[in-house]
Amino acid sequence: MPSLMLVGGVELGGTKIRVARGSDDGRIEASETFQTTGPEPSFARILNFFRGGPPISALGVGAFGPVAVRPSDSDYGRLRGTPKPGWRDFDIAAAAGALGVPVALDTDVSAAGRGEAALGALAGLDCGIYLTVGTGIGGALVAHGQPLPGASHAEMGHVSLVRTPGDDFGSVCPWHANCAEGLASGPAIERRFGANLGALPDDHPGHALIAGYLGQLLASLVLVAAPNRIVIGGGVSKAPGLHARAHAALLAGLNGYGFYPEAGRPGFVVPPALGDDAGLAGALLMAGAEARRR
Ligand SMILES: [Zn+2]
């Protein structure tokens, strides 16, 4: 087995940034977390972390999106149309490239999907889905350890849902009146209930409402991709019982359509085995792959 390389990973989130140094098999050795501010001060802190320690062979970045992740894109590395102040059109690849080592860029969700596929709940599976439910809703379809390449990254959180009767809540998505992110993301939950899902009492109807919407999304993903397992991470997923409720809602959505029994088994919808480290682990794996490719 080839010896391990020391590489760097960045998880660039909308509210916080995590940086890590670790081995190219995805193991984190040292990490730091800080708040996301504007792009320049944020990258100054990121570069400072890596310049202040032993040299790394490559850097993997998992970023919030939408972001141009294909090297053949004319706007490769740039954030596309984010509402986050100051970040629109910011060139992440160029900013990370200031470190002078090869850079691999993907979405934060794809990075987390890679991490779970290599070391976590999606390991050894033909096909898995990593879904994050937090500030937004996003997902990655991972086949044999790799997020599916396409014309861009997927945006599973913007799939339209059927509203629960009586739910006239105004979507928080600026583009869609009925998408999953607009109805069931962290900001939607905060605006609906004035609290996060985990803070609601166990018998609060909000649990069934949100799980119902997530279950609808899961049913669509199952019908499209027939994954072996679905991981749900992100802040909203930390509400106790969320995975079991969403799994039950998924099965209710399929309504007995038994085209494959795997979806009905316990453990089909699970939290990330790597917890909050899935994205950083994936970023380290991306860095390792990029260093070997050069
Ligand atoms: Zn939307």
Question: Can you walk through the features of this model?
Answer:
The chain is of the alpha/beta class and 294 residues long. The chain folds into two domains: 6-111 and 276-293, Nucleotidyltransferase, domain 5; 124-271, Nucleotidyltransferase, domain 5. Helix content is 32%, strand content 19%. It is built from eight helices and ten strands. The chain has helices at 39-51, 92-97, 108-119, 180-184, 186-193, 205-225, 242-254, 278-293, and strands at 6-12, 16-23, 28-35, 59-63, 103-107, 127-133, 137-143, 146-147, 229-233, 269-270. The protein has a five-stranded mixed sheet. Strand 2 and strand 3 (28-35) form a beta hairpin. Helix 3 (108-119) packs across helix 8 (278-293) and helix 6 crosses helix 7 (242-254). The longest helix is centred in the last third of the chain and has 21 residues, at 205-225. The radius of gyration is 19 Å and the shape is globular. The two termini are 19 Å apart. Residues 158, 173, 175-176, 179, 181-182 line the site of zinc ion.
Which secondary structure elements does this structure contain, and how are they paired or packed?
Elements: E1 6-12, E2 16-23, E3 28-35, H1 39-51, E4 59-63, H2 92-97, E5 103-107, H3 108-119, E6 127-133, E7 137-143, E8 146-147, H4 180-184, H5 186-193, H6 205-225, E9 229-233, H7 242-254, E10 269-270, H8 278-293
Parallel strand pairs: 1-4, 4-5, 6-9, 9-10
Antiparallel strand pairs: 1-2, 2-3, 6-7, 7-8
Helix pairs in contact: 3-8, 6-7
The structure holds zinc ion.
Residues 158, 173, 175-176, 179, 181-182 line the site of zinc ion.
